[in-house]
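ENTRY TYPE: protein
CONTENTS: sequence, structure tokens:
***
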Amino acid sequence: MSLAPSQPRNTSAATASNRAELASSGARAELRLVDPAAGTAPSATAGTTIRAGATRVGRLLVQGARRTLDIMVAAALLLVLSPLLLLVALAVRIDTGGPSLFRQSRVGRGMREFTMFKFRTMQSGADTTPHREYVQALIGDERGPERGRLYKLSVDNRVTRVGRVLRNWSLDELPQLINVLLGQMALVGPRPVIPYEVEKYPEAYLSRFDVKPGLTGLWQVSGRNQRTYEEMVNFDLQYARESSLLLDLRILVKTIPVVLGRQGVA
């Protein structure tokens, strides 16, 4: 009795048939990597989770680097400039009497209020009403004549003789280095906003509070007090969108000639 030779199995045809069956049935196939030791496939979201974790770690490292830079520079400047700070404080007190430091509530990151420090450049106990009315008119009047005006009052009789000198050289801002050390401000960021400004803010302005306010920023190195209120806010919003360590370093470098050249002084 003779046996018929067995027919070789057509593996390619079988594979193609299986694929066709899967396609016709509408089944969803998923490629999964199996760990031979565990005998199970990792979750389909594992890669996404790992990437998200790496992004979060990278963001924390950048934030840590920026905070370290803030602390080191602020501490060094306070130490090196301490004789100048003492002289300025003495000059303010001799000029008009009263306290040398001016404390004012400002709105920071997350719309949390904090006390900001400056050297006093106005008469002690000066009325804030003129500035409040002026700034709120700038924000609220969307198409009127106020819209294109500068942020600061061009003529302000509340400013003292020493105060004008301090403003011309931006020396009145130096005590904000204390706010930087306390973590309430950064070296670079949007201008710290007064609460009565925020009362008039449209929703489009609120993203400026996604980052810490700064001692200097895009507005300060882009014309400062020669810019309109709307332009100032747009610079702050741009910084909040593009904030990075590299941008901070660029702004810090640009701040030096701006201050020494008294550019954009009101």
Summary: The chain has one domain: 68-260. DSSP finds nine helices and four strands in the chain. The chain has a mean pLDDT of 82. Strands lie at 101-107, 113-119, 186-188, 214-216.
